[in-house]
Amino acid sequence: MEVVIVDSPEQIGVLGAQAVADTVTAKPDAILGLATGSSPLAIYDELGRRVAAGELTLKDCTGFNLDEYVGLPDDHPQRYRNVIEDEFVTKTDIDTANVHGPDGSAADIPAACAAYERAITDAGGVDIQILGIGSDGHIAFNEPGSSLASRTRLKTLTHQTRVDNARFFDDDVDAVPVHCITQGVATIMEARHIVLVAAGRHKAQAVHELVEGPISAMWPATILQMHPNVTVIVDEPAASRLQLAGYYRETYAAKPAWQGF
């Protein structure tokens, strides 16, 4: 696990976008794993800037979203397929038809989950997965207590996650759906490169557990310690509880210029 500590969320965006750009340069038709929430927005902004400047193209790429609320109408602004469209697709040149998400409106949710899992596999698997982390250590909607061997499935959101997400629903926690479809922990672990980003002191304990704590289903993100290629990019407040923060800074500063993520 490579840990990079930066000064600002904007720097998180630049480094996260560089990791995506490196992947796409090596493989122009790369499969991108896309996350919603506040954490990845700086990455999407920077990718959009690079596409607009002619420095990068995502036209041959395919995207798979991490998760989706169950029960929101197709035109709801907080439906994650619509959020990704607004925050990522419209800013880049990726074909909207090549961006896929779980079907939260399906009549048969278990069948929709299995179909989504197959679609990722049939596409060849995710080349680079962008992740955020919840203050309780969840990744995607794999809440504390989730099986570390889980696959795409229906989940019930914890009250804390609904409280955290209420800001996207006019601060009305009752408007936040109770259920979702999420890629499982084991599904996420099959991505070839994972880039997890976090900003703010409220993420500090989760980042500490992720990087330095024991692997535990109570902190689902800790399973990433077992992945062979994870980059964690955090700002100083999010890194404030890391016991080895000085070591991580020294290690990244000494990294050879030719060595990418």
Automatic annotation (TrEMBL):
Pathway: Amino-sugar metabolism; N-acetylneuraminate degradation; D-fructose 6-phosphate from N-acetylneuraminate: step 5/5. GO terms for molecular function: glucosamine-6-phosphate deaminase activity; identical protein binding. Pfam families: Glucosamine_iso. Its EC number is 3.5.99.6. It catalyses: alpha-D-glucosamine 6-phosphate + H2O = beta-D-fructose 6-phosphate + NH4(+). Allosterically activated by N-acetylglucosamine 6-phosphate (GlcNAc6P). The record marks 146, 153, 155-156 as: Part of the allosteric site. The keyword Nucleotide-binding does not apply. One of its GO terms (cellular component) is cytoplasm. Belongs to the glucosamine/galactosamine-6-phosphate isomerase family. NagB subfamily. Catalyzes the reversible isomerization-deamination of glucosamine 6-phosphate (GlcN6P) to form fructose 6-phosphate (Fru6P) and ammonium ion. HAMAP family: GlcN6P_deamin. This is Glucosamine-6-phosphate deaminase. The gene is nagB.
